Every structure is written in C-alpha cells, then in structure tokens.
Amino acid sequence: MDRAVAVIGAGTIGGAIIRGLLRAGGGYRVVATARSSSTVERLRGLGVEATTDNVEAVREADLVILTVKPYVVADVLREVAAELEGKPLVSLAAAVSTGYIASRAPKAKVIRGMTNINVEVNEGFTTLSAGPNCDQAARSAAEELFRRLGTVEWVDERYMDALTALSGSAPAFIAEVIDALALGGIAAGLPRDLAYRATLMAMMGTSRNLLETGRPPHQVRDMVLTPAGTTIRGVMVLQGNGLKRTLMEAVLEATRRAKEMRDEMGLS
Ligand SMILES: NC(=O)C1=CN([C@@H]2O[C@H](COP(=O)(O)OP(=O)(O)OC[C@H]3O[C@@H](n4cnc5c(N)ncnc54)[C@H](O)[C@@H]3O)[C@@H](O)[C@H]2O)C=CC1
Ligand SMILES: O=C(O)[C@@H]1CCC=N1
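YS: structure for the whole thing
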C-alpha cells in the first residue's frame, strides 16, 4: 500500500517536493495543505489531495513534511502536535532546531532537513539531522522519501545553517552566476538562447566531471588554462574583481542570517 505523506504548507518547496515525487512515480499518497483555497486548488491540479485542514492531513499521514516559513512553525505545531504522536516529522524550515520542534511536538519523531529546489527534477541535495526522540524506522522513512528526490546525507545538526546556505540557497547563487556568464556571452555577440545553452551545459558538464573524476576544481581549471591563451585572461578578470571572495561572503552571510532569524523569532 502507498505510504501517506502530508506536506504541510505546500508552497514553493513543498510544491517542488510533490512534483518530484510525482515524477519519481508511485509509492506515496500525498495530502498537501495550504492556507488559501486558491493554492489548494492549484495543488489539486497537480493530481494530489489538498486541503486547508492541517489537522486532518496529519491525522491521515504516515510521514509529515513541514514546509511552512520559519515564523509559522510554532503556530502549525500548536495546531497539529496531538496528531503527531509516533509519526516522523521532517521540518525543512530554515533556522528552526530539532530541539525547538521536539519541545513543541514532544510525541513526534523529529527530523530537521535542508533541501533545495532541484528536488522538482529529482536532483535535490537533502541533508537530514535526527532529533533526540527519532528512531531508526522514522529515519528510514524520511531517507527513503528524499532519495526519490535526489541525494541524501545525514549530518550533524551544527552544520545545518551552513547547509541552508550551501544547499537551500545555492541554486539561487548558481542561477545568478549562470545568468552573468550567459550575459557575457550575449555581450560577446552570441544569440541569447545559444548563450544560455552553452552556459548551462558547461555548468552541468563541469559538475559531472568533478563528481565523476573526484578532481578538485583547481585541477580542472589548470587543465583548461593554456599559457598565454584565452582562459587565463578571463581568470585574471575574475581574480581581479574578487569573484571567489564575493561567493565565499555570500555563503557566510546567508549562514549568519539563519542565526539572526532564530534571534528574531526568540528561538536562540
Ligand atoms: N524555497 C526554497 O528553495 C527552500 C525553502 N526552504 C524552507 O521551506 C519553507 C517554505 O519556504 P517556501 O516554500 O519558499 O515558502 P512559501 O511561502 O512558498 O510556502 C509556504 C506555504 O505555507 C503556506 N502556509 C502558511 N501558513 C500556513 C498554515 N498555518 N498552515 C498551512 N499552510 C500554511 C503558505 O500558504 C505557502 O503556500 C521555509 O521554512 C524555508 O526556510 C527550505 C529549502 C529550500
Ligand atoms: O531563502 C530562504 O530563507 C530559504 C531557505 C533556503 C532557501 N530558501
């Protein structure tokens, strides 16, 4: 029988998870919730059950995924805590710790996760941290679901804020880099579509190359650099304008923001 999964607050990331599960085909009966009836209708359009009733959705579920904004987590947990008894609860909310969730839903088997938008094409990178009251069955249930959506790793929770930046936010950073490279191609006279295609294929091919060969990035860079050639001229501009420092600071700043959000929500 299909496992029933409730996606509570199915907006951008919850919707992407649902689309990824549907693409992966079978195995799950999805019940999604949203606050507005227009979003509920949109979710039904995907072919899943949808409702504004969080309590009912959790009651029917074997596994619950929480995808509301961080500042909504407390309200939702207050509403559904009693129905979570004995159930795996995976919270994907940035900055919210397993300790906090377990204090608000003490009967749930709490897991904190971070994933990214690429779950919608089954290429997500999901990291999971188990809370103190989480057993092996709950871990396996969560891992099995997210494996359908890409790669899964269990990590120490102290890495979660940095992974929120480097997994959750990274598609936005990378999309900006892709956009900039393609615009450079357009500036050099390429037709727009060709510029984006060339950039995307170079991005994907380089990732696959690094993953498959296990080479460090600087080694690939050196393989491409011809003395007095074209690439070194481009690299010179990147270095001169602080590309690496800029990207490093972006990751650090996004990581710092998670702590700031906890302070704002009074969760520190
Ligand atoms: N967008 C992304 O790429 C990622 C987001 N996240 C985390 O996922 C969470 C959601 O982010 P998004 O999907 O971007 O936000 P979103 O705003 O698109 O989705 C949240 C959904 O929750 C619904 N909602 C609000 N209050 C509710 C309630 N009381 N009961 C049920 N549903 C309710 C909203 O109607 C909305 O559809 C955040 O905590 C964020 O940190 C994590 C990884 C990636
Ligand atoms: O921007 C955010 O706060 C969320 C968390 C990771 C991706 N989106």
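YS: worth flagging: The chain has two domains: 3-157, 170-260.
IM: good catch. Also The mean pLDDT is 97.
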